[in-house]
Amino acid sequence: MPRRPERRTQQERREATIGRLIDATVEAIAEVGYARASLGEICTRSGVSRGGLFRHFDSRLDLMVTAADEVARRHIDRIREQFAELPEPPTLAEAFRLMRARHRATENVVWFELMVAARTDPDLRARLSEVGRRFFDDIVRVGRTVPGSELFTDAELEMLLNTVEHTFDGEAIRREIDPDPEAEEQRLQLISEFAEFYVTRRLTEAADGDTERG
């Protein structure tokens, strides 16, 4: 006798519905933009009714912020996976290259769209700021796994990654209308060389200090 398919629990059905709504929101924002990612558009893409949507999210704002949080989670998870796939821990240059690729990922457009919308929407701005702070904290934690990062103080590493993050965000937007692969590669090399120079300087200072104490 063929086995009857196991029935999903209510919690499993709930999680599946939420997952479809979030996926549909990410896809809609990335493909048609924040303004056109209406609840109707999201419901059509997800196959969930408006009533079903409002059983899980109080408003469009809640759904949009949850989508931003999900994109941030995917960003961090993928970077960790890519680091783990390397035969050796990444160099600073390799880490920056992987970071730049994640900023160019299609789903990361969600962040660009929401940040622009937040400029004139105080509620979205407040909620997105909270998500953004958590996202950046996760980026810093991942940065600490890269050899050489231990030579940076917390403030120095945060400033470096904040600067690189803003650079890659701006580059990802600008290259849509005015791509310049040669300049982009030179920019990445400049960032990497600066970070490696800083590490070399710190190592030299430490070695000189040991010599003086000896």
TrEMBL record:
InterPro entries hit by this protein: BetI_C, Homeodomain-like_sf, HTH-type_TetR-like_transc_reg, HTH_TetR
Gene Ontology molecular function terms on file: DNA-binding transcription factor activity; transcription cis-regulatory region binding
Keyword RNA-binding: no
Keyword DNA-binding attached: yes
Superkingdom of origin: Bacteria
Protein name: TetR/AcrR family transcriptional regulator
Keywords: DNA-binding, Repressor, Transcription, Transcription regulation
DNA-binding region: 38-57
Annotated source species: Streptomyces coryli
One family name in Pfam for this protein: TetR_C_6
Domain HTH tetR-type: 15-75
Coiled-coil segments: none
